[in-house]
TrEMBL record:
Chain ranges of the Orn/DAP/Arg decarboxylase 2 N-terminal domain: 60-303
UniProt protein name: Diaminopimelate decarboxylase
Catalytic activity: meso-2,6-diaminopimelate + H(+) = L-lysine + CO2
Cofactor(s) recorded in Swiss-Prot or TrEMBL: pyridoxal 5'-phosphate
InterPro entries: Ala_racemase/Decarboxylase_C, DAP_deCOOHase_LysA, De-COase2_CS, De-COase2_N, De-COase2_pyr-phos_BS, Orn/DAP/Arg_de-COase, PLP-binding_barrel
This protein's encoding gene: lysA
Enzyme class: lyase
Keyword NADP listed: no
UniProt-listed GO biological process terms: lysine biosynthetic process via diaminopimelate
Highest taxon of the lineage: Bacteria
EC number: 4.1.1.20
List of residues binding substrate: 299, 336, 340, 369, 397
Length: 447
């Protein structure tokens, strides 16, 4: 077992990141550890870039969320948002920790089933489900489909009737509440593509009760992602509670409210969304409705469980301003900084690097895009060629959003469980990049 001696580093960012990430520690000899595993050992054996997930963190966070709901006296089904991390190992761990799944495609549905998540614990959300995906959901007998438009209601009714099936349906309502998060991940304001306009919801609920193949059971709402304060949740759930009352007054039964996901985490110093506070809001706004409650968290469960390991290819001097630290990971691996200007903590893997006095640097990848930037003018220990770093909080919306842009093979994935680790997806081979490309004989030119 490695020596867990904590020592002082002069870099306040390093100290703060270690303080806010309880699964990470800096060991004098072994460097940065994720749970009981030195990350250098993984990088030595597997190479970089490489995603590493902590099984323990997934389990602990699922338990924390369940306890928060229970302590508030709520019985809530939790559906892990598969879009945040769809690795079979992750799905299997969260399933064993008591979660079902929220899926947005046929592919996610099949992966959730492959990971052992029972169909009865799967809900299907999304603005555009194809007929084939709806048929799959009906064949599998999943718990519920969250319908997002009048058009989808008609299509689903047609598909279900043609199969002689009936399915529980919740209407996803757009409550026109601003989640005060990044504009690209806000989903609950009027004008977003998501959900049924609030004022149309009751009419469509009535329509759903008249259409064959559908059993309208309630409402769903999801207002966005990385939400840190409770006001938007309170406003959205308050509106849904009102809708439930009005629907019942109209003589239509409502038995389900799906409260969506969106709870945020602490990437930098913003503090994390509190499951206890969320439970409190759900109880105060929806607790007396006598409905079955559900939530769909993704990021809050998975993001802090993962890091992305990378190596410094080179350090590029500039005449003015911060030097460029060019990593072997890039935007094709982790897209969030490029897409949302998202801030991710970066820590050196070596204890030796971690104790150096910090400098300002720009951390970038080698992809041919100026947007391929992980951090601008970031205070970091001076990282030299060959140094390794961990980019933090990449367990959600990390590997799932990777691509092979610039013909860069998908990075390896590793699972840490206590003081053991194993590869859960080998690095993609370069040959795999063209394995499915068809080059007809006439097109082939001998090199
Ligand atoms: C319908 C739905 N549910 C759940 C989630 C999960 O969100 P988060 O990862 O922020 O918890 C999303 C993504 O924003 C979503 O679109
Ligand atoms: N992919 C986004 C969040 C979108 C969530 C899905 N609706 C992120 O990385 O933060």
């Amino acid at each position: 077992m490695a020596d867990q001696t904590v020592f002082t580093t002069p870099d306040p960012t390093v100290r703060e990141l270690l303080a806010t990430h309880s699964n990470l520690s800096l060991d004098v000899r072994s460097g940065l550890m994720l749970d009981g595993v030195p990350l250098q050992a993984i990088a030595d054996e597997i190479g970089t870039p490489c995603w590493v997930m902590s099984a323990d963190t997934l389990r602990k966070r699922a338990a924390k969320l369940h306890n928060a709901m229970k302590s508030a006296g709520l019985s809530v089904s939790t559906h892990f948002a598969v879009k945040s991390n769809d690795h079979l190992a992750v799905l299997s761990i969260v399933s064993q920790a008591g979660m079902g799944a929220d899926v947005v495609s046929g592919g996610e549905l099949i992966k959730a089933r492959k990971a052992g998540i029972p169909a009865s614990r799967i809900v299907f959300s999304g603005v555009g489900k194809t007929d084939a995906e709806l048929r799959l959901a009906l064949q599998e007998g999943i718990a519920q489909i969250n319908v997002e438009s009048a058009e989808e209601l008609e299509i689903l009714s047609g598909v279900a009737s043609s199969m002689g099936r009936e399915i529980d349906v919740a209407l996803r309502v757009n409550p026109d509440v601003d989640a005060k998060t990044h504009a690209k991940i806000t989903t609950g304001v009027a004008g977003n593509k998501f959900g049924i306009p609030y004022d149309e919801a009751l009419g469509l609920y009535r329509l759903a009760s008249e259409l064959s193949g559908l059993r309208p059971v309630g409402y769903a709402v999801h207002i966005g992602s990385q939400i840190l304060t409770m006001e938007p949740y309170r406003a959205a759930y308050g509106r849904i509670a009102e809708l439930v009352r009005v629907t019942r007054q109209a003589g239509l039964p409502v038995t389900v409210v799906d409260c969506g996901g969106g709870l945020g985490i602490c990437y930098r110093d913003e503090g994390e969304g509190s499951p206890e506070a969320l439970a409190g809001v759900i109880r105060s706004e929806l607790g007396d409705l006598d409905v079955h409650l559900a939530i769909e968290p993704g990021r809050w469960i998975a993001a802090p469980a993962g890091v992305l390991l990378a190596s410094v290819i080179l350090r590029k001097k500039v005449t003015e301003g911060s030097p460029f630290i060019i990593l072997d990971a890039a935007m094709n691996d982790l897209l969030r900084p490029s897409l949302y200007e998202a801030w991710h903590g970066i820590l050196p893997l070596s204890a030796h690097d971690a104790v150096l006095a910090p400098e300002e640097a720009c951390v970038v990848g080698p992809v041919c895009e100026t947007g391929d930037t992980f951090a601008q003018d970031r205070s970091l220990p001076p990282l030299q060629r060959g140094a390794r770093v961990a980019i933090l909080d990449t367990g959600a919306y990390g590997a799932v959003m990777s691509s092979t842009y610039n013909a860069r093979p998908l990075a390896a994935e590793v699972l840490v469980d206590g003081d053991r680790w194993s590869v859960i997806r080998p690095r993609q081979k370069v040959e795999d990049l063209w394995a499915n490309e068809i080059l007809s004989e006439g097109m082939r030119v001998e090199a």
